[in-house]
UniProtKB/TrEMBL annotation:
Name of the protein in question: Cell shape-determining protein MreC
Rod shape-determining protein MreC beta-barrel core domain span: 120-261
GO cellular component, one term: plasma membrane
Superkingdom of this protein's organism: Bacteria
Gene3D superfamilies for this protein: Rod shape-determining protein MreC, domain 1, Rod shape-determining protein MreC, domain 2
Alphabetized InterPro entries for the sequence: Cell/Rod_1, Cell/Rod_MreC_2, MreC, MreC_beta-barrel_core
Entry similarity comment: Belongs to the MreC family.
An example Gene Ontology biological process: regulation of cell shape
Transit peptide in keyword set: no
Keyword annotations: Cell shape
Gene behind the chain: mreC
A Pfam entry, by short name: MreC
């Protein structure tokens, strides 16, 4: 039994091989192939579609990642462009400032950015916070200017910040003179953006539109800083003095950078 068993399997294999070479077997195989061929082809196409779908989503994910990176690069380049434009603008401000002329100039200019409005309970008080302080050598009383125009005066100083009282503040005072009529007086802040020229004698005449500049006689501000221009003059018949409304030469609500004048020692 043990000897004939392998021989049986061998003979069966030879028989099957011989049958596979006959026309009948080839016809059977052809029929089977014809019957199952469409199913095999269908499964093949489905598998191809699935593979293509997988690669599509893989490529789409890659494109999404690439698009995100490109968006980040574009945002970075835009921010760099804005920074360069802002630097160019600040350089132009510096150039314009140092090209200005101030009579009897002796001292240094320190550029400062405006951080915001100062906190105060008084409605008539107008102050701004600057990003420079004692670290940069600022002192209380230092004049604050822009393009040769008077902005205000430092009233409080901290390590890296300072509080500037604007010329529009009701507590602000400065000795001034009108450029054409040479009328001396004192400028004071008023409500809103207007200034007030005080202590003008009744006999003195002012021309509407003429410039008002610092006289330097109070020792607080250099001579020649532009304060504003005469808008109108008011006078009471029985009063000894009259006052004038002055339009400021700058817009206090649109300040971004200013300069602190450091008097030379």
């Amino acid at each position: 039994m043990t000897v004939w068993a392998p021989l049986k399997y061998l003979l069966a294999a030879i028989l099957l091989l011989m049958l596979g070479l006959t026309p009948f077997s080839r016809a059977v195989r052809g029929g089977v192939s014809a019957f199952f061929g469409p199913f095999v082809f269908g499964f093949y196409k489905i598998s191809q579609g699935l593979v293509s779908e997988v690669y599509f989503w893989k490529d789409l994910r890659g494109l999404a990642v690439e698009n995100t990176l490109l968006q980040k690069q574009v945002a970075y380049l835009k921010s760099q462009t804005v920074r360069l434009d802002e630097t160019a603008r600040e350089n132009e401000v510096l150039k314009k400032q140092f090209n200005g002329k101030i009579n009897d100039w002796q001292g240094d200019l320190i550029m400062a950015r405006v951080l915001g409005w100062g906190q105060t309970t008084a409605a008539s008080s107008k102050t701004i916070i600057l990003n420079k302080g004692t670290t940069q050598g600022l002192l209380e009383g230092d004049p604050v200017i822009l393009d040769g125009n008077l902005v205000g005066q430092i009233v409080q100083v901290y390590e890296n910040s300072a509080l500037c009282r604007l010329a529009s503040d009701s507590n602000f005072k400065a000795a001034v003179v009108t450029q054409k009529s040479r009328v001396f007086g004192t400028i004071a802040g008023d409500f809103g953006t207007k200034l007030r020229l005080e202590h003008i004698l009744q006999a003195e005449n002012l021309d509407t539109g003429e410039a008002v500049i610092t006289s330097g006689m109070d020792g607080k501000f250099p001579k020649g800083l532009v304060v504003g221009f005469v808008e109108s003059v008011t006078s009471a018949p029985s009063a000894v003095e009259k006052t004038a409304v002055i339009n400021s030469a700058i817009s206090f609500t649109r300040l971004e950078e200013v300069f602190i004048w450091k008097k030379g020692q």
